[in-house]
Amino acid sequence: MKIETVVKLPLAVLLAVAAFGVAGAQAQCAQSAVNASSTYEDFMAGPGAAMFSVSNLWLLIATALIFIMHLGFATLEIGLTQSKNTVNILFKNVFVVCMGVFVYALWGFKAMYPDTWLIPGAFAVGGPIPTSFDAATTAVNMTAASGHAYTYWTSFIFQGLFAATASTIVSGAVAERIKLNAFMVYATIFSLVMYPLCGSWGWGGGWMIGGLQQVFGAAFHDFAGSTFVHAFGGWASLAAIIVLGPRIGKFAPDGKVRPILGHSMPMVAIGGFLLFMGWFGFNGGSVMSADPQTVSRVIVTTTLAGFCGGLTSIIASKMILKYPDLSMSINGMLAGLVGITAGADVTGVWGACAVGGIAGVLVVLAVMFFDRIRIDDPVGAVSVHGVCGFWGTIAVGIFGNGSFWTQLTGVLAVSVVSFASSFALFSILKATMGIRVSREEETAGLDVGENGQVAYPDFQEAGPTM
Fold first, then answer.
1. What is the predicted pLDDT for the residue at 3?
2. What is the CATH number of the domain that holds 356?
3. Which residues, other chains included, contact 415 with Cβ-Cβ below 8 Å and sequence gap of 6+?
4. Which domain holds residue 104?
5. Which residues of 133-163 are buried (b: 16+ CB within 10 A; e: fewer)?
6. Distance from C-alpha of 165 to C-alpha of 172, rounded to nearest angstrom
7. Is this prediction's pTM over 0.70?
């Protein structure tokens, strides 16, 4: 990349925010006017009722599939880590999804999809979702331009499950050595403030839409979250790992990597396949309707990208590591899925294969790279979500119909803000309440020290009776 281009990118962000005030705000007002004139009763009494009902139902089914992904995250993470930390990791996954959706209802949804901006295109004040189920609050988002069809409540719960995913990514990266209370505070603040802030820039109609359209001639495109979920969570994970430090024994004094083996490869495989299954809802639901053509296309491109990522990671691990590594192949599938998530709706079949295939190689190289620079990531979260989320976003400008420079500017902005805010928050927590368990507790396992119980009492010494 040329030096003058690097210098211009921050300027492009500033210009985009300014341009939003002219183009983005006008577009938002026009859209609001369209939605205000369309109500639930209007559609249910008209000829579009059947399609609306099917579309709304599909989004609720997709939401259920996304929820299954949290089971996939949980099983994948425990499989790739030691048995003495199983309960602790499972507990964190329970907490993240519960707190994530709650704070999204309390603040995040309205901050991410604002009616008005405090700073145009950049920051909006959130607030609780309505308590009423009357017609005014169940307005339909169904326009001739978008083809979207769902109630207010379906929109909230679908997006709420997305919101819980970003902190779940960080959970795996900091496994086996973080204090539980510190992680709970971190996950709450990050889900409450940072996720809706960054999401509003694109999905909420912020500066990445009208602003970047003015600067580069194309709006930022992130169909289902390569940037706003995966790159966001992946680079936040990197900051957390840097502040937290590696697990005891992971790196020898001479810098050599000492593998800390996971305790259940069957759980890794189960988790990987559950996540793949959930991606049908993650991407397929992001069509925001049950349009047959678009939903089927998105599911095809998603599936092929995931499978091609798995294939290329198998080949890469065989060539580099001299054997086909199972964990690399699972992460390769996930890398392909993360990669195509930004452009599943605008990438052709063979383009999707290329995006996923490249992601499968990238994840193997990235895992090895981060090990080499002494970054201890037990589950490969930074490689799968950060690296491949970044790749998938810019791939829209290569294999899709987007602008490369728009995509690069957008994903850089989110990645930098995510990393910086995560680093700052973890540093504050480290200086105040502490973020690292004691050496003795880490050696014995966090299940007993942090949760007071063990996962496998028939095979481990039991913890204290609660």
1. 44
2. 1.10.3430.10
3. 227, 231, 232, 235, 386, 390
4. 58-124+154-451
5. eeeeebbbbbeeeeebbbbbebbbbbbbbbb
6. 11
7. yes
